[in-house]
Amino acid sequence: DMLRLLRANPEFAAACHAAAINCADGFPVAFYGRLRRAGGGGRVTGCDLFHELADNAQTWRQRMLIVSESDGTTAALTTWIEARGLADFWHSITAPVAMLASRAAQDRLAVAITTWRPDILVLTLGAPASEVFLYRYHNKLPPCWALCCGQAVRIEVGLARRAPPVWQRYNLEWAWRIVREPRRLGPRYFRDALAVPGIIFADLSAAWWPAGGLDAAVDQSRM
């Protein structure tokens, strides 16, 4: 889904290219990366990343601000934070509705983040909203690590269920998610599957032919 968005949304693509670290969450992308010997980090899921932060919060004691997509997630997070004794340095707020459609709403969120001054900022808004907001406002936010984790936060606090270990072992988390949310994810994953051949062809074209990809190679052959 991210790769499809990279081709369809120029601002999202710019945000990803500007990021300090890009991780492959989905198994197909990580597997293709290994085949192409691209990168070196392997697969890093948002669930594992956020769980590591939560599991070591008392040791690290970093100021954490989580920007949730809904009041329900914020309420669950607040209860979860208080139950684990993290309220002194963890906090959660809800992002404005339809945030990317309103600059005023984005400005308000940036002010709220600056007021809290986190060491780590986590956004659960989904792509491309989280990435585009960070790209637009990174120069106006306090120095911090900003992570786009999405569903991982909801899983950690018990609002959603992660695939059982056996599904994870065989890289079938995508199938588990379709089973759990067929109406929302079925059509999206179908569109993503249709886009994969074109994405792979474009990548291999850029790797095998001169700068500019296949079109440049064809033009060069005509000279």
Attribute tags:
223 residues; alpha/beta; four-stranded parallel beta sheet; 13 helices; globular; disordered C terminus
Provide a descriptive summary of the structure in words.
The chain is of the alpha/beta class. The protein has helices at residues 2-8, 10-18, 27-35, 46-55, 57-60, 71-83, 103-116, 129-137, 151-156, 165-169, 173-180, 182-208, 213-221, and strands at 64-68, 90-94, 120-123, 145-148. A four-stranded parallel sheet has the order 2-1-3-4, with helices on both faces. The longest helix has 27 residues, at 182-208. The radius of gyration is 19 Å and the shape is globular.
Mind sketching the topology for me?
Blueprint: H1 2-8, H2 10-18, H3 27-35, H4 46-55, H5 57-60, E1 64-68, H6 71-83, E2 90-94, H7 103-116, E3 120-123, H8 129-137, E4 145-148, H9 151-156, H10 165-169, H11 173-180, H12 182-208, H13 213-221
Parallel strand pairs: 1-2, 1-3, 3-4
Helix pairs in contact: 1-2, 2-8, 11-12
Give the structure's gist in a few sentences:
Helices cover 58% and strands 8% of the residues.
The gross shape turns out to be globular
As laid out across the biggest beta sheet, the strand order is 2-1-3-4
Extract low-pLDDT stretches: 212-223
Residue share in helices?
A: 55-70%
Based on DSSP secondary structure assignment, what is the total number of beta strands? 4
**Class derived from helix and strand content:** alpha/beta
What is the tally of helical segments?
13
Biggest sheet layout: 4 strands, parallel
Strand content: 5-15%
Order of helices and strands: HHHHHEHEHEHEHHHHH
Radius of gyration: 19 Å
